[in-house]
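Inputs:
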Amino acid sequence: MTIPDDHPRRDSLLSRQRIVDAQAAGLLADSALIAHGRGEAFDYLIGERTTDSAKAAQREALNRLFHAKSPVISLNGNSTVLAGEEAICLAALTKSNIEVNIFYRTDDRMRLLLADIQKKRNKVIETPPSPKIAIKTWREMVESVRIYGENPDAEIPGLHGPRASCSSLGIFQADVVMVPLEDGDRCEALVAMGKQVLVIDLNPLSRTSMRASVTIVDEVSRAIRQMVRMALHGPSHDLSDWNNRTILEDALSEIATAVKQLQR
Amino acid sequence: MTIPDDHPRRDSLLSRQRIVDAQAAGLLADSALIAHGRGEAFDYLIGERTTDSAKAAQREALNRLFHAKSPVISLNGNSTVLAGEEAICLAALTKSNIEVNIFYRTDDRMRLLLADIQKKRNKVIETPPSPKIAIKTWREMVESVRIYGENPDAEIPGLHGPRASCSSLGIFQADVVMVPLEDGDRCEALVAMGKQVLVIDLNPLSRTSMRASVTIVDEVSRAIRQMVRMALHGPSHDLSDWNNRTILEDALSEIATAVKQLQR
Protein backbone atom coordinates (compact mmCIF):
# COMPACT_ATOMS: atom_id res chain seq x y z
CA MET A 1 0.00 0.00 0.00
CA THR A 2 1.33 3.44 -0.88
CA ILE A 3 0.23 6.33 1.29
CA PRO A 4 1.01 9.86 0.05
CA ASP A 5 3.49 11.77 2.26
CA ASP A 6 1.00 14.55 2.84
CA HIS A 7 -1.96 12.32 3.70
CA PRO A 8 -3.46 13.80 6.87
CA ARG A 9 -3.88 10.36 8.44
CA ARG A 10 -0.59 8.93 7.16
CA ASP A 11 0.82 7.86 10.56
CA SER A 12 -2.38 6.10 11.47
CA LEU A 13 -2.57 4.25 8.15
CA LEU A 14 1.10 3.23 8.35
CA SER A 15 0.58 1.88 11.86
CA ARG A 16 -2.44 -0.07 10.69
CA GLN A 17 -0.41 -1.60 7.87
CA ARG A 18 2.35 -2.56 10.28
CA ILE A 19 -0.15 -4.35 12.48
CA VAL A 20 -1.79 -6.16 9.55
CA ASP A 21 1.63 -7.23 8.20
CA ALA A 22 2.81 -8.40 11.61
CA GLN A 23 -0.37 -10.39 12.12
CA ALA A 24 0.07 -12.04 8.72
CA ALA A 25 3.67 -12.88 9.70
CA GLY A 26 2.47 -14.61 12.87
CA LEU A 27 3.69 -12.09 15.45
CA LEU A 28 0.29 -11.18 16.88
CA ALA A 29 -2.79 -12.81 18.35
CA ASP A 30 -6.15 -12.12 16.67
CA SER A 31 -7.24 -9.96 19.55
CA ALA A 32 -4.31 -7.67 18.74
CA LEU A 33 -6.07 -6.45 15.61
CA ILE A 34 -9.29 -5.72 17.47
CA ALA A 35 -7.36 -3.87 20.18
CA HIS A 36 -5.60 -1.85 17.48
CA GLY A 37 -8.94 -0.92 15.93
CA ARG A 38 -10.28 0.27 19.28
CA GLY A 39 -7.17 2.38 19.69
CA GLU A 40 -7.61 3.84 16.19
CA ALA A 41 -11.10 5.04 17.05
CA PHE A 42 -10.04 6.74 20.27
CA ASP A 43 -7.02 8.26 18.55
CA TYR A 44 -9.28 9.59 15.81
CA LEU A 45 -11.44 11.25 18.46
CA ILE A 46 -8.49 13.01 20.14
CA GLY A 47 -7.35 14.18 16.71
CA GLU A 48 -4.37 11.82 16.34
CA ARG A 49 -2.15 14.18 18.32
CA THR A 50 -0.49 14.30 21.72
CA THR A 51 -2.67 16.35 24.04
CA ASP A 52 -1.36 18.60 26.81
CA SER A 53 -2.45 16.22 29.54
CA ALA A 54 -0.74 13.34 27.74
CA LYS A 55 2.45 15.42 27.60
CA ALA A 56 2.28 16.00 31.35
CA ALA A 57 1.84 12.26 31.91
CA GLN A 58 4.78 11.51 29.61
CA ARG A 59 6.97 13.86 31.63
CA GLU A 60 5.89 12.23 34.88
CA ALA A 61 6.39 8.70 33.55
CA LEU A 62 9.81 9.65 32.24
CA ASN A 63 10.90 11.05 35.61
CA ARG A 64 9.80 7.86 37.30
CA LEU A 65 11.88 5.82 34.89
CA PHE A 66 14.89 8.08 35.55
CA HIS A 67 14.47 7.85 39.33
CA ALA A 68 13.78 4.11 39.43
CA LYS A 69 16.25 1.62 40.88
CA SER A 70 15.42 -1.04 38.34
CA PRO A 71 13.06 0.16 35.62
CA VAL A 72 11.69 -2.22 33.02
CA ILE A 73 9.81 -1.46 29.81
CA SER A 74 7.49 -4.37 29.04
CA LEU A 75 6.55 -4.80 25.39
CA ASN A 76 3.63 -6.86 24.14
CA GLY A 77 3.10 -7.77 20.49
CA ASN A 78 1.47 -4.53 19.35
CA SER A 79 3.92 -2.28 21.17
CA THR A 80 6.91 -4.25 19.84
CA VAL A 81 5.58 -3.88 16.31
CA LEU A 82 4.48 -0.25 16.59
CA ALA A 83 7.09 1.23 18.89
CA GLY A 84 9.89 -1.28 19.39
CA GLU A 85 12.61 1.06 18.11
CA GLU A 86 11.37 3.98 20.17
CA ALA A 87 11.21 1.74 23.26
CA ILE A 88 14.82 0.64 22.82
CA CYS A 89 15.92 4.29 22.54
CA LEU A 90 13.96 5.17 25.65
CA ALA A 91 15.40 2.21 27.55
CA ALA A 92 18.95 3.23 26.56
CA LEU A 93 18.38 6.82 27.67
CA THR A 94 16.76 5.91 31.00
CA LYS A 95 18.94 2.87 31.82
CA SER A 96 15.89 0.62 31.69
CA ASN A 97 15.78 -2.98 30.60
CA ILE A 98 13.17 -4.45 28.27
CA GLU A 99 11.01 -7.52 28.69
CA VAL A 100 8.97 -8.89 25.81
CA ASN A 101 5.92 -10.25 27.54
CA ILE A 102 2.70 -11.20 25.80
CA PHE A 103 -0.67 -12.00 27.28
CA TYR A 104 -1.52 -14.95 25.06
CA ARG A 105 1.91 -16.54 25.17
CA THR A 106 2.91 -19.06 22.51
CA ASP A 107 6.47 -20.18 21.78
CA ASP A 108 6.14 -19.26 18.10
CA ARG A 109 4.99 -15.72 18.71
CA MET A 110 7.63 -15.18 21.40
CA ARG A 111 10.38 -16.39 19.08
CA LEU A 112 9.22 -14.07 16.29
CA LEU A 113 8.83 -11.07 18.60
CA LEU A 114 12.27 -11.57 20.18
CA ALA A 115 13.81 -11.79 16.71
CA ASP A 116 11.94 -8.61 15.73
CA ILE A 117 13.13 -6.65 18.75
CA GLN A 118 16.73 -7.79 18.18
CA LYS A 119 16.48 -6.60 14.59
CA LYS A 120 15.17 -3.27 15.82
CA ARG A 121 17.95 -3.02 18.39
CA ASN A 122 20.52 -3.59 15.64
CA LYS A 123 18.98 -0.73 13.70
CA VAL A 124 18.68 1.66 16.64
CA ILE A 125 22.29 1.13 17.73
CA GLU A 126 23.55 2.64 14.46
CA THR A 127 22.15 6.14 14.99
CA PRO A 128 22.19 8.18 18.19
CA PRO A 129 18.89 10.03 18.77
CA SER A 130 20.82 13.33 19.11
CA PRO A 131 24.05 14.62 17.55
CA LYS A 132 25.18 15.38 21.13
CA ILE A 133 25.60 11.68 21.85
CA ALA A 134 28.78 10.20 20.39
CA ILE A 135 28.29 7.07 18.31
CA LYS A 136 30.52 5.01 20.61
CA THR A 137 28.68 6.18 23.72
CA TRP A 138 25.35 5.40 22.10
CA ARG A 139 26.46 1.90 21.18
CA GLU A 140 27.40 1.27 24.82
CA MET A 141 24.10 2.68 26.03
CA VAL A 142 22.05 0.47 23.70
CA GLU A 143 24.21 -2.57 24.40
CA SER A 144 23.61 -2.19 28.12
CA VAL A 145 19.84 -2.63 27.62
CA ARG A 146 19.01 -6.26 28.47
CA ILE A 147 16.15 -7.87 26.64
CA TYR A 148 14.29 -10.42 28.73
CA GLY A 149 11.39 -12.65 27.84
CA GLU A 150 12.90 -15.77 26.33
CA ASN A 151 12.96 -17.79 29.53
CA PRO A 152 10.28 -16.63 31.94
CA ASP A 153 11.14 -18.08 35.36
CA ALA A 154 8.83 -16.17 37.69
CA GLU A 155 5.10 -15.63 38.14
CA ILE A 156 3.06 -12.54 38.81
CA PRO A 157 1.02 -13.36 41.94
CA GLY A 158 -2.75 -13.38 41.43
CA LEU A 159 -2.66 -14.38 37.76
CA HIS A 160 -2.96 -17.89 36.36
CA GLY A 161 -1.57 -19.77 33.37
CA PRO A 162 0.76 -18.33 30.73
CA ARG A 163 -0.37 -14.77 31.41
CA ALA A 164 1.30 -14.96 34.86
CA SER A 165 4.75 -15.65 33.38
CA CYS A 166 7.52 -13.12 33.62
CA SER A 167 11.28 -12.95 34.06
CA SER A 168 12.77 -12.82 37.56
CA LEU A 169 15.41 -10.35 36.38
CA GLY A 170 12.88 -8.32 34.34
CA ILE A 171 9.34 -7.39 35.36
CA PHE A 172 9.37 -9.47 38.53
CA GLN A 173 12.04 -7.47 40.33
CA ALA A 174 11.36 -4.05 38.76
CA ASP A 175 10.27 -1.17 41.00
CA VAL A 176 8.94 0.80 38.01
CA VAL A 177 7.35 -0.98 35.02
CA MET A 178 6.27 0.79 31.90
CA VAL A 179 3.64 -1.37 30.20
CA PRO A 180 2.24 0.22 27.05
CA LEU A 181 -1.08 -1.40 26.05
CA GLU A 182 -1.47 -3.58 29.13
CA ASP A 183 -4.39 -5.84 29.98
CA GLY A 184 -6.53 -4.72 32.96
CA ASP A 185 -5.94 -7.83 35.09
CA ARG A 186 -2.22 -7.67 34.60
CA CYS A 187 -2.08 -3.97 35.37
CA GLU A 188 -3.92 -4.62 38.65
CA ALA A 189 -1.68 -7.55 39.55
CA LEU A 190 1.46 -5.46 38.97
CA VAL A 191 0.09 -2.62 41.10
CA ALA A 192 -0.74 -5.19 43.80
CA MET A 193 2.95 -6.23 43.77
CA GLY A 194 3.75 -2.69 44.93
CA LYS A 195 5.23 -1.58 41.63
CA GLN A 196 4.75 1.78 39.98
CA VAL A 197 2.94 0.99 36.75
CA LEU A 198 3.20 3.40 33.82
CA VAL A 199 0.77 2.69 30.98
CA ILE A 200 -0.03 4.08 27.55
CA ASP A 201 -3.70 3.59 26.71
CA LEU A 202 -5.90 5.56 24.33
CA ASN A 203 -9.04 4.75 26.31
CA PRO A 204 -9.01 6.86 29.46
CA LEU A 205 -11.85 4.73 30.84
CA SER A 206 -10.24 1.32 30.54
CA ARG A 207 -9.48 -0.62 33.71
CA THR A 208 -5.79 -0.36 32.84
CA SER A 209 -6.02 3.43 32.61
CA MET A 210 -7.91 3.65 35.89
CA ARG A 211 -5.55 1.41 37.88
CA ALA A 212 -2.17 2.57 36.61
CA SER A 213 0.11 4.84 38.63
CA VAL A 214 0.59 7.08 35.58
CA THR A 215 -1.61 6.85 32.47
CA ILE A 216 -0.50 8.34 29.18
CA VAL A 217 -3.59 8.70 26.97
CA ASP A 218 -1.82 8.69 23.62
CA GLU A 219 -0.92 6.43 20.72
CA VAL A 220 1.99 4.21 21.72
CA SER A 221 4.58 5.11 19.06
CA ARG A 222 3.79 8.82 19.23
CA ALA A 223 4.00 8.73 23.03
CA ILE A 224 7.32 6.91 23.25
CA ARG A 225 8.83 9.01 20.45
CA GLN A 226 7.88 12.10 22.43
CA MET A 227 9.35 10.62 25.63
CA VAL A 228 12.62 9.94 23.79
CA ARG A 229 12.79 13.64 22.82
CA MET A 230 12.11 14.63 26.43
CA ALA A 231 14.63 12.10 27.76
CA LEU A 232 17.46 13.75 25.83
CA HIS A 233 17.21 16.59 28.38
CA GLY A 234 17.32 14.24 31.39
CA PRO A 235 14.82 14.27 34.27
CA SER A 236 12.85 17.52 34.20
CA HIS A 237 11.77 17.75 37.84
CA ASP A 238 11.90 15.90 41.14
CA LEU A 239 9.24 13.31 41.73
CA SER A 240 6.05 15.17 42.52
CA ASP A 241 2.63 14.38 43.86
CA TRP A 242 0.78 12.94 40.94
CA ASN A 243 -2.97 12.82 40.62
CA ASN A 244 -3.66 10.30 37.90
CA ARG A 245 -7.43 10.73 38.33
CA THR A 246 -7.15 14.37 37.24
CA ILE A 247 -5.19 13.37 34.16
CA LEU A 248 -7.87 10.89 33.14
CA GLU A 249 -10.58 13.53 33.62
CA ASP A 250 -8.55 15.93 31.48
CA ALA A 251 -8.22 13.28 28.78
CA LEU A 252 -11.99 12.71 28.78
CA SER A 253 -12.62 16.44 28.57
CA GLU A 254 -10.28 16.61 25.62
CA ILE A 255 -12.20 13.84 23.85
CA ALA A 256 -15.51 15.58 24.58
CA THR A 257 -14.15 18.89 23.26
CA ALA A 258 -12.70 17.24 20.17
CA VAL A 259 -16.02 15.54 19.40
CA LYS A 260 -17.80 18.88 19.73
CA GLN A 261 -15.31 20.51 17.36
CA LEU A 262 -15.82 17.72 14.83
CA GLN A 263 -19.49 18.68 14.77
CA ARG A 264 -18.77 22.04 13.19
CA MET B 1 -14.94 -18.32 26.62
CA THR B 2 -17.81 -18.21 29.13
CA ILE B 3 -19.42 -14.83 29.71
CA PRO B 4 -21.82 -14.52 32.66
CA ASP B 5 -25.44 -13.83 31.65
CA ASP B 6 -25.52 -10.63 33.68
CA HIS B 7 -22.21 -9.24 32.43
CA PRO B 8 -22.92 -5.59 31.53
CA ARG B 9 -20.93 -5.87 28.31
CA ARG B 10 -22.07 -9.39 27.40
CA ASP B 11 -23.37 -8.56 23.90
CA SER B 12 -20.19 -6.74 22.99
CA LEU B 13 -17.97 -9.58 24.24
CA LEU B 14 -20.05 -12.20 22.42
CA SER B 15 -19.81 -10.22 19.18
CA ARG B 16 -16.05 -9.92 19.59
CA GLN B 17 -15.78 -13.69 20.11
CA ARG B 18 -17.88 -14.32 16.98
CA ILE B 19 -15.54 -12.14 14.95
CA VAL B 20 -12.40 -13.79 16.34
CA ASP B 21 -13.83 -17.28 15.69
CA ALA B 22 -14.92 -16.36 12.16
CA GLN B 23 -11.50 -14.92 11.40
CA ALA B 24 -9.82 -18.11 12.67
CA ALA B 25 -12.20 -20.10 10.44
CA GLY B 26 -11.13 -18.10 7.39
CA LEU B 27 -14.33 -16.09 6.81
CA LEU B 28 -12.82 -12.64 7.30
CA ALA B 29 -9.96 -10.49 6.05
CA ASP B 30 -7.49 -9.16 8.65
CA SER B 31 -8.82 -5.67 8.26
CA ALA B 32 -12.18 -7.01 9.47
CA LEU B 33 -10.81 -7.37 12.99
CA ILE B 34 -9.44 -3.83 13.01
CA ALA B 35 -12.75 -2.49 11.73
CA HIS B 36 -14.55 -4.40 14.46
CA GLY B 37 -12.27 -2.91 17.09
CA ARG B 38 -12.98 0.61 15.83
CA GLY B 39 -16.68 -0.15 16.04
CA GLU B 40 -16.30 -1.44 19.59
CA ALA B 41 -14.73 1.82 20.71
CA PHE B 42 -17.48 3.98 19.20
CA ASP B 43 -20.15 1.65 20.58
CA TYR B 44 -18.55 1.92 24.00
CA LEU B 45 -18.77 5.70 23.76
CA ILE B 46 -22.48 5.70 22.89
CA GLY B 47 -23.10 3.32 25.79
CA GLU B 48 -23.66 0.16 23.71
CA ARG B 49 -27.31 1.07 23.19
CA THR B 50 -29.55 2.24 20.36
CA THR B 51 -29.90 6.02 20.63
CA ASP B 52 -33.05 7.95 19.74
CA SER B 53 -31.53 9.32 16.55
CA ALA B 54 -30.47 5.80 15.53
CA LYS B 55 -34.05 4.65 16.08
CA ALA B 56 -35.34 7.41 13.81
CA ALA B 57 -32.84 6.38 11.13
CA GLN B 58 -33.85 2.74 11.49
CA ARG B 59 -37.49 3.69 10.95
CA GLU B 60 -36.60 5.72 7.87
CA ALA B 61 -34.39 2.98 6.43
CA LEU B 62 -37.11 0.43 7.05
CA ASN B 63 -39.71 2.52 5.25
CA ARG B 64 -37.42 2.87 2.28
CA LEU B 65 -36.95 -0.90 2.13
CA PHE B 66 -40.74 -1.34 2.28
CA HIS B 67 -41.37 1.22 -0.46
CA ALA B 68 -38.55 0.04 -2.74
CA LYS B 69 -39.20 -1.70 -6.05
CA SER B 70 -36.21 -3.97 -5.73
CA PRO B 71 -34.49 -3.70 -2.34
CA VAL B 72 -31.27 -5.56 -1.63
CA ILE B 73 -29.47 -6.08 1.67
CA SER B 74 -25.75 -6.40 0.97
CA LEU B 75 -23.77 -8.32 3.58
CA ASN B 76 -20.00 -8.21 3.93
CA GLY B 77 -18.00 -10.58 6.13
CA ASN B 78 -18.53 -8.86 9.46
CA SER B 79 -22.23 -8.24 8.93
CA THR B 80 -22.81 -11.85 7.80
CA VAL B 81 -21.07 -13.10 10.94
CA LEU B 82 -22.61 -10.62 13.37
CA ALA B 83 -26.09 -10.13 11.96
CA GLY B 84 -26.71 -12.71 9.23
CA GLU B 85 -29.79 -14.17 10.91
CA GLU B 86 -31.29 -10.78 11.64
CA ALA B 87 -30.65 -9.70 8.03
CA ILE B 88 -32.48 -12.74 6.66
CA CYS B 89 -35.48 -11.99 8.91
CA LEU B 90 -35.47 -8.39 7.77
CA ALA B 91 -35.20 -9.40 4.12
CA ALA B 92 -38.15 -11.79 4.52
CA LEU B 93 -40.30 -9.14 6.18
CA THR B 94 -39.48 -6.40 3.65
CA LYS B 95 -39.40 -8.60 0.51
CA SER B 96 -35.73 -7.78 0.00
CA ASN B 97 -33.08 -10.02 -1.50
CA ILE B 98 -29.62 -10.51 -0.07
CA GLU B 99 -26.24 -10.25 -1.73
CA VAL B 100 -23.08 -11.41 0.00
CA ASN B 101 -20.50 -9.00 -1.28
CA ILE B 102 -17.06 -8.49 0.23
CA PHE B 103 -14.53 -5.80 -0.41
CA TYR B 104 -11.42 -7.99 -0.46
CA ARG B 105 -12.95 -10.78 -2.50
CA THR B 106 -11.37 -14.24 -2.51
CA ASP B 107 -13.08 -17.43 -3.64
CA ASP B 108 -12.38 -19.17 -0.34
CA ARG B 109 -13.92 -16.47 1.79
CA MET B 110 -16.94 -16.17 -0.53
CA ARG B 111 -17.55 -19.92 -0.37
CA LEU B 112 -17.35 -19.93 3.44
CA LEU B 113 -19.59 -16.89 3.81
CA LEU B 114 -22.23 -18.25 1.42
CA ALA B 115 -22.24 -21.54 3.36
CA ASP B 116 -22.58 -19.57 6.60
CA ILE B 117 -25.54 -17.52 5.35
CA GLN B 118 -27.28 -20.67 4.06
CA LYS B 119 -26.84 -22.27 7.47
CA LYS B 120 -28.30 -19.18 9.08
CA ARG B 121 -31.21 -19.17 6.64
CA ASN B 122 -31.95 -22.81 7.56
CA LYS B 123 -32.07 -21.80 11.19
CA VAL B 124 -34.17 -18.65 10.71
CA ILE B 125 -36.77 -20.47 8.60
CA GLU B 126 -37.72 -22.68 11.57
CA THR B 127 -39.02 -19.92 13.83
CA PRO B 128 -41.25 -16.98 12.81
CA PRO B 129 -40.17 -13.71 14.48
CA SER B 130 -43.71 -13.23 15.81
CA PRO B 131 -46.44 -15.68 16.90
CA LYS B 132 -48.75 -13.78 14.54
CA ILE B 133 -46.95 -15.22 11.52
CA ALA B 134 -47.92 -18.85 10.76
CA ILE B 135 -45.03 -21.24 10.37
CA LYS B 136 -46.02 -22.09 6.80
CA THR B 137 -46.30 -18.43 5.82
CA TRP B 138 -42.91 -17.71 7.39
CA ARG B 139 -41.27 -20.56 5.48
CA GLU B 140 -42.59 -19.12 2.21
CA MET B 141 -41.41 -15.64 3.15
CA VAL B 142 -37.89 -16.81 3.95
CA GLU B 143 -37.74 -19.09 0.90
CA SER B 144 -38.60 -16.17 -1.35
CA VAL B 145 -35.43 -14.31 -0.25
CA ARG B 146 -32.82 -14.87 -2.94
CA ILE B 147 -29.20 -14.95 -1.90
CA TYR B 148 -26.82 -13.57 -4.53
CA GLY B 149 -23.08 -13.30 -4.51
CA GLU B 150 -21.78 -16.60 -5.85
CA ASN B 151 -21.47 -15.49 -9.46
CA PRO B 152 -20.90 -11.77 -9.73
CA ASP B 153 -21.59 -10.78 -13.33
CA ALA B 154 -21.75 -6.99 -13.14
CA GLU B 155 -19.52 -4.12 -12.09
CA ILE B 156 -20.15 -1.02 -10.04
CA PRO B 157 -19.02 1.90 -12.26
CA GLY B 158 -16.12 3.92 -10.84
CA LEU B 159 -14.54 1.07 -8.89
CA HIS B 160 -11.73 -1.19 -10.05
CA GLY B 161 -10.73 -4.80 -9.49
CA PRO B 162 -12.57 -7.32 -7.30
CA ARG B 163 -14.19 -4.59 -5.24
CA ALA B 164 -16.24 -3.52 -8.26
CA SER B 165 -17.90 -6.94 -8.59
CA CYS B 166 -21.58 -7.39 -7.92
CA SER B 167 -24.55 -9.41 -9.15
CA SER B 168 -26.69 -8.06 -11.96
CA LEU B 169 -29.84 -9.37 -10.25
CA GLY B 170 -28.68 -8.17 -6.83
CA ILE B 171 -26.99 -4.88 -5.98
CA PHE B 172 -26.58 -3.82 -9.61
CA GLN B 173 -30.30 -3.45 -10.35
CA ALA B 174 -31.48 -2.50 -6.84
CA ASP B 175 -33.12 0.89 -6.28
CA VAL B 176 -32.54 0.71 -2.53
CA VAL B 177 -29.45 -0.99 -1.09
CA MET B 178 -28.87 -1.51 2.57
CA VAL B 179 -25.14 -1.91 3.12
CA PRO B 180 -24.23 -2.32 6.77
CA LEU B 181 -20.53 -1.60 7.37
CA GLU B 182 -19.73 -0.36 3.88
CA ASP B 183 -16.44 1.02 2.63
CA GLY B 184 -16.41 4.73 1.80
CA ASP B 185 -15.48 4.36 -1.89
CA ARG B 186 -18.16 1.77 -2.48
CA CYS B 187 -20.78 3.82 -0.68
CA GLU B 188 -19.97 6.78 -2.93
CA ALA B 189 -20.02 4.64 -6.06
CA LEU B 190 -23.45 3.23 -5.18
CA VAL B 191 -24.84 6.71 -4.52
CA ALA B 192 -23.38 7.81 -7.87
CA MET B 193 -25.40 5.02 -9.53
CA GLY B 194 -28.53 6.80 -8.29
CA LYS B 195 -29.38 4.28 -5.60
CA GLN B 196 -30.66 5.03 -2.17
CA VAL B 197 -27.95 3.75 0.13
CA LEU B 198 -28.83 2.81 3.71
CA VAL B 199 -25.82 2.19 5.96
CA ILE B 200 -25.14 1.14 9.51
CA ASP B 201 -21.94 2.67 10.82
CA LEU B 202 -20.88 3.42 14.39
CA ASN B 203 -18.66 6.29 13.32
CA PRO B 204 -20.87 9.25 12.40
CA LEU B 205 -17.85 10.96 10.84
CA SER B 206 -16.82 8.22 8.42
CA ARG B 207 -17.03 8.90 4.71
CA THR B 208 -19.64 6.15 4.46
CA SER B 209 -21.78 7.83 7.12
CA MET B 210 -21.47 11.21 5.43
CA ARG B 211 -22.33 10.00 1.93
CA ALA B 212 -25.18 7.60 2.65
CA SER B 213 -28.84 8.45 2.03
CA VAL B 214 -29.72 7.21 5.52
CA THR B 215 -27.11 6.49 8.20
CA ILE B 216 -27.92 4.37 11.22
CA VAL B 217 -25.27 5.06 13.87
CA ASP B 218 -25.61 1.81 15.78
CA GLU B 219 -24.05 -1.62 16.18
CA VAL B 220 -25.06 -3.81 13.24
CA SER B 221 -26.77 -6.73 15.02
CA ARG B 222 -28.55 -4.46 17.50
CA ALA B 223 -29.71 -2.21 14.65
CA ILE B 224 -31.06 -4.96 12.42
CA ARG B 225 -32.69 -6.77 15.36
CA GLN B 226 -34.49 -3.53 16.18
CA MET B 227 -35.52 -3.08 12.53
CA VAL B 228 -36.97 -6.60 12.52
CA ARG B 229 -39.11 -5.70 15.53
CA MET B 230 -40.26 -2.51 13.79
CA ALA B 231 -40.89 -4.37 10.52
CA LEU B 232 -43.45 -6.65 12.20
CA HIS B 233 -45.75 -3.61 12.23
CA GLY B 234 -45.23 -2.80 8.55
CA PRO B 235 -44.23 0.63 7.21
CA SER B 236 -44.78 3.27 9.88
CA HIS B 237 -45.17 6.38 7.71
CA ASP B 238 -45.06 7.57 4.15
CA LEU B 239 -41.68 8.48 2.77
CA SER B 240 -40.71 11.81 4.27
CA ASP B 241 -38.10 14.47 3.73
CA TRP B 242 -35.04 13.12 5.40
CA ASN B 243 -32.14 15.22 6.57
CA ASN B 244 -29.28 12.80 7.09
CA ARG B 245 -26.94 15.61 8.10
CA THR B 246 -29.12 16.36 11.14
CA ILE B 247 -29.05 12.72 12.16
CA LEU B 248 -25.26 12.67 12.03
CA GLU B 249 -25.08 15.82 14.12
CA ASP B 250 -27.46 14.27 16.64
CA ALA B 251 -25.28 11.15 16.78
CA LEU B 252 -22.19 13.26 17.46
CA SER B 253 -24.00 15.19 20.19
CA GLU B 254 -24.98 11.90 21.76
CA ILE B 255 -21.37 10.76 21.79
CA ALA B 256 -20.25 14.08 23.29
CA THR B 257 -22.95 13.85 25.97
CA ALA B 258 -22.11 10.22 26.73
CA VAL B 259 -18.42 11.07 27.13
CA LYS B 260 -19.32 13.89 29.51
CA GLN B 261 -21.48 11.53 31.57
CA LEU B 262 -18.67 9.00 31.74
CA GLN B 263 -16.56 11.68 33.42
CA ARG B 264 -18.76 11.75 36.52
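Strands of chain B lie at 71-75, 97-100, 147-148, 154-155, 165-166, 176-180, 196-200, 214-216. Flag for discussion at group meeting.
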